[in-house]
Write a structure and sequence with these properties.
This protein is an alpha+beta fold. The chain has one domain. The protein is built from eight helices and six strands, in the order ααβαααβαβββαβα. The protein has helices at about 5-10, 25-50, 70-95, 100-105, 115-120, 155-160, 215-220, 230-240; strands spanning about 60-65, 125-130, 160-170, 180-190, 190-200, 225. It has a six-stranded mixed β-sheet. About 25% of the residues are buried.
């Protein structure tokens, strides 16, 4: 067997060489700055977020349905919301308005005289047709009479366009309001545009306002009820989201 030369056998192995990264110092500094930035962002969010989240602010002539109405007014308002949709759909299909007599036949609250009606003040409802601006006279039993109304100048000027109003008054429960379900009615050609708004007055016997434009209602003490939709309820619970 051949043997290695003496000088090759006795030679020491080459020593290892450590090569430091050229950017190691900057990487460490960047990690520190990034960590501090995250901590600052979290701390800023915790300090700036609202501690007590309230519902969206209402204007002076508005009232929130969630916390601005008492129990009986909330009940009437909750019934008027779907009633307004039903009345609008009926008007779109037939061109007419659901009378109070017909509301009894189709069991439409809050107009239908059942246990709900009795338990929530036995409100007297009247239907004011577009352009008449006068409440129908009531018969001795409280039903709205169907006597014809003379058209007003507003009705003539708008060719029948205007607002149909369901006016509720005379509720006898403590703190109960008077109510207006105002359905703005207008159509051009075949395009219909009906929209319902609900108004309350602190006097349950407040007279019918005559003109149901918002500025006129506000001047006479009526306030529009602002109903919550899904987005409003999320905002009420969690506050304004980014």
């Amino acid at each position: 067997m051949a043997s290695l030369p003496l000088n090759d056998r006795d030679a020491a192995p080459p020593a290892g060489r450590v090569v430091n990264p050229a950017s190691g110092r900057w990487e460490s500094l960047a990690m520190v700055l990034l960590t501090l930035g995250v901590i600052a962002c979290v701390a800023g969010y915790l300090l700036l977020r609202p501690r007590e989240v309230g519902p969206p602010a209402a204007l002076s002539w508005q009232v929130r349905s969630f916390d601005g109405l008492n129990a009986v007014d909330q009940a009437i308002h909750s019934a008027l919301l779907p009633a307004g949709e039903e009345i609008i759909w009926n008007n779109n299909d037939t061109g007419g308005w659901i009378t109070l007599e017909h509301a009894q036949k189709i069991v439409l609250p809050p107009f239908y005289r059942d246990a709900f009606w009795k338990g929530n003040g036995e409100v007297h409802w009247q239907l004011i047709l577009p352009g008449s601006h006068q409440a129908h006279a009531r018969t001795p039993d409280g039903e709205a009479a169907s006597s014809a109304q003379s058209p007003s100048q507003v009705s003539q000027a708008t060719q029948g366009q205007g607002a149909a109003v369901y006016y509720g008054s005379g509720g006898h429960l403590p703190g109960q309001s008077a109510y207006l379900l105002v359905i703005g009615h207008a159509h051009a050609g075949v395009m219909w545009a009906n929209q319902a708004t609900i108004w309350v007055h602190p006097d349950p016997n407040a007279p019918y306002p005559g003109i149901v434009k918002p500025e006129s209602l506000v001047s006479k003490g009526w306030r529009q009820v602002i109903a919550y939709d899904g987005n409003s309820e999320i905002e009420r619970v969690k506050g304004t989201q980014p």
